[in-house]
Amino acid sequence: MLFALSTLFLQNYLEDQLIGATLEEELDDYVNQLRLDPTVVEPFYTRIQGYITRPGDPNQTVAADIRALPSGVHDVHSGAGVFKAAVRKEDDLWAFLIYDVSDNRRLEQQLFLALVGVVLLFSILSFMLGAWSSRRVMKPVTDLAARLDTLSKEGKPERLSGHFADDEVGQLAAALDTYADRLHHLVERDREFNADVSHELRSPLTVITGATELLLAQDDLDPRVRTRLLRIARAARQSADITTALLHLVRAEQGTDKDSAAQNVGRIVNDVVHLYEPLIGNKDLKLLVRETDRVSVIAPESVVAVTVGNLIGNAMRYTNEGEVVITIGEGCVCVDDTGPGIPESELEHVFERHYRGQNISGKGAGLGLAIVKRLCSLYGWSIRFSNRPAGGLRAELRFFGQ
């Protein structure tokens, strides 16, 4: 459009310059002829009309608006049309050369409208062609994106490269197939490893638990031996719960977990507290359980035990004195302690794998809360930590409700 307008402007400019120069030359020639031969009559062209008059001549053959113009070339618009007027005023004569450019102006308008129409037409055609071309060029990419969105989350993903030609998009689809195969292999290997380890550990843990119970049943046990056996029993129970929870986690991700029995959360919490009581040791620490109403949840018992056990164990581990209060009711379990709490800047990182706070001492791999978060996400529970105004930390595990 800009090119067409600039072309039209250049054409008008050159035409005006050419007409003006021509009129001036014609007028000079006529004046010279007139001075050589006074018998030259006027007008002397059809479209270019020349007139000679004298200053103060009463015979006004030239229109007043043209007669009043100074020497030079002028554009004159009147009811009769559009004219180019070349004027030469000397002391003894006035010469006028008038050229009718009305047809030229009409032609320019028609040319302008035609150019605008052609530009608009070609713009529309270019837009339509560009849109069609872009859709045609991008169609394989959009098809690839659509197939990626519809890939099944379970099982081996469908091959993408078979649906596309051997071009850039086909090469991209082949690369995605290779990457998907690698991911599928890694996920399957991880699931099989978790399932195998969880399954294989259950048998020796069952043996350890059974043997420990038999030894604890003896009446003549030394108190120190009994304490050690209780620690073994607690560790075996915790290990059994975590392996069973991981096994349920793998099965749930595979869609094969059928365990949907309702569990009494209060009973599970009391069992977990009984297991964790030996951790108090010589600490000046009280472990209290308050159940305001019954809370039941549909989930494997081991999953609930691992989740609440991790929260209770962390509270006891990092609280040297005071109390740890477990409150059960209104669809949630709250664990409040009087420990040092967690810096606000670290609260958002506590569920990250292998994350341990800057001021945390003691052993630990930093995986407990990551596993808890994964279990909560799987069963639709929510968990959050917050520092208590009176000091200490609150861990809130909500099974349902706000």
TrEMBL record:
Catalytic activity field: ATP + protein L-histidine = ADP + protein N-phospho-L-histidine
Subcellular location: Membrane
Primary location recorded for the protein, binned into one broad class: membrane
Keyword annotations from UniProtKB, A to Z: Kinase, Membrane, Phosphoprotein, Transferase, Transmembrane, Transmembrane helix, Two-component regulatory system
EC numbers on record: 2.7.13.3
Transmembrane segments: 111-132
Entry keyword annotation includes Kinase: yes
CDD domains reported in the protein's UniProt record: HATPase, HisKA
Gene Ontology MF annotations: phosphorelay sensor kinase activity
Recorded GO CC terms: plasma membrane
Domain HAMP: 135-188
Domain Histidine kinase residue range list: 196-402
Pfam families: HAMP (PF00672), HATPase_c (PF02518), HisKA (PF00512)
Enzyme class: transferase
InterPro entries found in the cross-reference section: HAMP_dom, HATPase_C_sf, HATPase_dom, His_kinase_dom, HisK_dim/P_dom, HisK_dim/P_sf, Sig_transdc_His_kin-like_C, TCS_sensor_his_kinase
PANTHER family: HISTIDINE KINASE (PTHR45436:SF16), SENSOR HISTIDINE KINASE YKOH (PTHR45436)
Name used for this protein in its record: histidine kinase
Species in which this protein is naturally found: Elongatibacter sediminis
